[in-house]
Amino acid sequence: MKIMKTSKFYILCVAGWIISVTRAHSQDISNLHAQKPVDLTGSAQLRGIYYNASGISNRRSPFSYIFSGNLSLNIYGVSLPVSFTVGEEGNSYSQPFNQFGISPHYKWITVHAGYRNINFSPYTLAGYTMLGAGVELNPGKFRFGFMYGRLNRATTLDTTTQSLIPISFTRKAVAVKIGYGTQKNFIDFSMLKGKDDASSVRVDKTVLDSLNVLPAANTVVAVSTRLTLWRNIFLEGDAAASVYTQDINSPLSLDSVNDPMVKKIKSVATVNGTSEFTTAISGAIGYKSKLYTIKFQYQRIDPNFQSMGAYFFNNDLENYVFAPSLRLFQSKLRFNGSIGIQHDNLQHQKEATSRKIIGTAMLSVDFTKSLGLDVSYTNFSNNQQPQTIRFADSIKIVQTTQNFSVSPRYTISNSNAMQSLVLSASTMQMNDFNNYFAQNAISRNVNYKQAYFNYTYGFIQTKLSVYVNLSYTQADAPGTTEDNKGCTLGFNKNFTKTPILLSASIGYFLGNQNGENNNTINASANFQYKFLKKQSLNALVFYTNNKPKNASTVIPSFSESRVELAYEYSF
């Protein structure tokens, strides 16, 4: 019975691999003659696993096997990958790229067909997966793009559960882009027009209404530009206007509205009483030289701004950002930073307005060829201002989160050996300044500290490296306190005369969680032998031993061991 199931599984794998299709990158057909017509690459591995546990229930079978593989068939540069796994714990078969799409290009002509992710602007067609066809033409500095296809496929009724959640209609769209310029200097105008097919879901209208599932329509127009003004001054920006109609079948018409703007919009978009007009804008102006860059950024996105050609937008926000960067002393000193303010509630529709201050700074210094230092700092402050009289103090957010890390590094190398020392320390603090919790002696502060030291010594001629790692973490949060200290020793060895790789490590860790102490030992070893260029044998050993100090602890005393033997063939 098991043999029959495995045979059926292999038949499904082969059949699925034959009919499976994948995403393909843009292919230059002018070089088609230089590519192999058909090429098959991949690998297959057979692993046997022994497992044993003491003190806890077994987490897997004592003996098991896994047969797995990855194959990739390339036909004139188009890749069709497939992977499979067969084992006692279950079989699987996957096509990592199970949608077909191809974008061949010849000189300044690119044709898109199948499932494609095209970007015309951040606010119109912005990488949304579309099943369709299109073309991009770039003769000289002229820029033209066109795509038409399906954005969503209608859901079908689950005959087993009679469930149809989430419900979606068939959604189709057309997108157009026209512009002039190069990759560094250009101006583009783009438009996306999408609409749901209300007849694509065969469900009673009362059911759709009860679930608030309505066929929608959307028209978005946008302009995008990247310009270098004068010598070092640059300007970049994106702006869009969106008309999103929540229900194309709504009886609330706007025929009696004589506003000239509404009439113009109705000539290019589906407009009724459920339509909403929103805008989005983002831009930056800056100065760039060899040593430094100064950049001012601005962004404003209206509440409920949507585009059917994009997956997600953070909306109802406005922010201002100042972002400088600096490179001095032949790039031995590098600095990048930003500081900005952000607020929401642009239309004053919420009970409170959140105001945030966001700052980041990263400094990297190379004092010598061997000695360097990396420092980073981030600050995030959030403060809500009530907009209504009835606003509970207990839900007001007044918080500041700070992250700071420093990492000195030192490296020495010569023809015989290489030494590397890295020390890193970081801290994260989240302080809650809400008066309600302070007055009631309730702490919601969070503190997290982490530090580690790593030293590696490598013998270049013998291809042997040894290392030691020391680590420490401490976390304090409401209701819990935890700290961990540990030390790990290990080595890696490549044998020069034989294709053998050997590595091993052992670590000892002391943990404390809310007064409960435990000691943990982790050990591992790996042996690899490559032969006949494409074949290899691997042996891996893992061991864990956990011993609580207190007999009454809820943390059990246990040990686990796992041994794996594997054979791999690559082609």
Structural account:
The chain has 571 residues and is mainly beta. The N terminus is likely disordered. A hairpin with a 6-residue loop joins strand 7 and strand 8. The chain is globular. The protein has four helices and 28 strands.
Describe what is shown at a glance.
The chain is 6% helix and 61% strand. With 571 residues, the protein is mainly β. A hairpin with a 2-residue loop joins strand 23 and strand 24.
Task: Record keyword descriptors for this entry.
disordered N terminus, 571 residues, mainly beta
Approximately how much beta-strand content do the residues carry? over 45%
- Unreliable residue runs: 1-25, 388-397
Computed structural class: mainly beta
Quaternary structure: single chain
Our Rg estimate from Cα atoms comes to 30 Å
- Per DSSP E runs of 2 or more residues, the count of β-strands stands at 28
| Shape type | globular
Number of helices: 4
Biggest β-sheet: count, sense, barrel?
A: 28 strands, mixed
| CA-CA gap between termini | 32 Å
Give a topology summary:
Layout: H1 2-19, E1 23-28, E2 38-54, E3 63-75, E4 78-87, E5 92-94, E6 101-106, E7 109-119, E8 126-137, E9 142-152, E10 170-181, E11 186-197, H2 205-210, E12 217-229, E13 233-245, H3 260-266, E14 275-288, E15 292-301, E16 317-328, E17 333-343, E18 352-366, E19 371-386, E20 398-413, E21 417-432, H4 435-439, E22 446-459, E23 464-477, E24 480-494, E25 500-513, E26 516-531, E27 535-548, E28 558-570
Parallel strand pairs: 1-6
Antiparallel strand pairs: 2-3, 2-28, 3-4, 4-5, 6-7, 7-8, 8-9, 9-10, 10-11, 11-12, 12-13, 13-14, 14-15, 15-16, 16-17, 17-18, 18-19, 19-20, 20-21, 21-22, 22-23, 23-24, 24-25, 25-26, 26-27, 27-28
